[in-house]
Amino acid sequence: MKSELVFDVMQEVDGGFVAECLTEPIFTQGDTWDELRASVLEAVSAYFFDDEKPSAVRLHLRRDELIAVG
Q: 2 - beta bridge partners?
């Protein structure tokens, strides 16, 4: 059984999320966190359609924030 896949998740400025797998060429998006989760699972299932699926998927939320000083 394959180990977990890790997705780097960024929140878009205009809302929504984008997720990119760090080890496979899988990229997807969703307007809400729940939509993103469903989209990631769908993308992973499609990518591994004829192959062994990973045992888990980790969504790693990365947040950039620019704070003005002064």
A: 54
Separation of alpha carbons 13 and 68, rounded Å: 17
Q: Write down the pTM of the prediction.
A: 0.84
Structure tokens at 15: 């809302």
For residue 58, the enclosing domain spans: 5-62
Secondary structure letter of residue 53 according to DSSP: P
Q: Is residue 70 domain-resident?
A: no
CA nearest to 2, candidates 47, 34, 62: 47
19, 60 contact by CB (below 8 A): no
**Total domains present in the chain:** 1
- Classify residue 48: in a domain, yes or no: yes
In a domain, 55, yes or no: yes
pLDDT of 5 strictly over 60: yes
CA distance 62 to 11: 8
